[in-house]
Design brief:
CATH architecture of the largest domain: 3-Layer(aba) Sandwich
Structural class: alpha/beta
Distance between the termini: 39 Å
Low-confidence stretches: none
Helix content: 25-40%
Strand content: 5-15%
Mean pLDDT: 94
CATH topology of the largest domain: Aspartate Aminotransferase, domain 2
Order of helices and strands: HEHHEHEHEHEHEEHEHHHEHEEEH
Length: about 400
């Protein structure tokens, strides 16, 4: 439904995978619970591994379900997040003035352009990575703003010099994402922060994959100071808590304070029991190290199997996705995704979902259990056909 000449939502990207699902099921059967059959869904970054038991105990036993939670997060929630930022990145953030809760981070990504546009109607542009999470561009559209992609350099960092000064003058914000979804590239967050300060453009850094940084140590835009920047974090990936929707944003106190106030009026509240679970999760780093080992092992296993099938899959610098260029025998990422579905029963995401620049690739999320990843590898070895198209 839309008003005449108004906004009509585009098809949701992952709803477009139905034909690929049918290709996989035609050969490998429906998903009946048989661990040797069915589709192995590596299209969406949905964690499959269990959160820590103590986190689930906190979720179920908080007693916080009786009253309304605070929109900015309880003092315990904000302190736990601030303490984690200090341990992980060596940064100091005032939990009372420079940090607030959000309901996961997707809604934060989607809604922030609208709220910033309310504060500064003269600016109407959202800058975002050219190959990236689709919600950066969608958030601009939902706000009635221009979504302007920022090209990347050969090393995967944002090509800040490629931003048109006219677009910078109209920009509400610049999104950066490091490690990046879908490519796994690491951005130069210090350079992004400096560009934003010089240009008078707030920089929002989506750092939800920071715990899974494989080249070097995890980095945050906050390491260069909080002025003009906001880091966005989530427990969905770090602690396998995508279903509870817990995240936070931290940085420039004016930006954080404004957004916290607006979100309070909108009723954007992380549920009380979820906040209690988040406190427990943020205080525990051990389970994250275990998860890091799992994802790295799965990346290596599947990358090796794809390489043996003549589909080179370089390991990422961060994140838990393989960003795989379609070999020359395939027209584009859709063709490679179809072959992988038909021959190995694995569902992947065509790179077109992440912008026109991703058209010739597929994204593979190694979020399935080890035995299912191993099953895909066995199927690839048995097919011997993938690279022929």
């Amino acid at each position: 439904m839309s008003a005449a000449g108004g906004f009509t939502p585009p098809p949701y990207p992952y709803d477009r995978l139905a034909e690929l699902v049918e290709l996989a099921r035609a050969r490998f059967g429906a998903d009946t619970g048989d661990r040797r059959g069915g589709v192995v869904d590596c299209s969406v970054g949905t964690p499959c591994d269990a959160p820590p038991a103590g986190v689930l105990e906190a979720l179920g036993g908080s007693g916080a379900e009786r009253g309304y939670p605070t929109a900015s997060g309880s003092a315990a929630y904000r302190t736990a997040a601030s303490d984690w930022l200090g341990r992980r990145f060596g940064v100091e953030v005032d939990p009372d003035r420079e940090l607030a809760a959000c309901i996961g981070t997707k809604e934060m990504v989607a809604s922030t352009p609208h709220y910033l546009h309310l504060a500064d109607p003269e600016r109407d542009t959202v800058l975002y990575p050219a190959v990236s999470y689709p919600t950066y561009a969608m958030g601009a559209q939902l706000a009635g703003c221009r979504a302007v992609p920022v090209p990347t350099r050969a090393d995967g960092a944002s090509d800040l010099a490629g931003i048109d000064p006219a677009d910078a003058a109209r920009a509400l914000m610049l999104w950066v994402n490091s490690p990046a979804n879908p490519t796994g590239a690491l951005d130069d967050l210090d350079a992004a922060a400096a560009w934003g300060r010089d240009s008078g453009v707030p920089v929002f850094s989506d750092e939800c994959y920071a715990e899974f940084t494989w080249r070097g140590r995890p980095r945050s835009v906050l390491e260069s100071g909080t002025a003009g920047v906001v880091a966005v974090h989530s427990l969905s990936k770090r602690s396998n808590l995508a279903g509870v929707r817990a995240g936070f944003f931290a940085g420039d106190r004016d930006l954080v304070g404004y957004l916290a106030d607006v979100r309070r009026h909108a009723g954007m509240m992380v549920p009380g029991p979820v906040q209690a679970a988040a406190v427990a999760a943020l205080a525990d780093d051990t389970h994250v190290e275990v998860q890091r080992e799992r994802y790295h092992r799965r990346l290596e296993t599947l990358a090796s199997a794809l390489g043996r099938a003549d589909v080179p899959a370089p390991l990422p610098d961060g994140g838990f996705y393989l960003w795989v260029a379609a070999p020359p025998s395939f027209e584009d990422g859709w063709a490679l995704a179809a072959a992988l579905a038909e021959q190995a029963g694995i569902l992947t995401s065509p790179g077109e979902f992440y912008g026109p620049g991703g058209r010739a690739a597929v994204r593979i999320a190694v979020v399935q259990p080890d035995d299912r990843i191993d099953l895909v590898c066995e199927r690839l070895a048995a097919s011997g056909l993938v690279a022929r198209g």
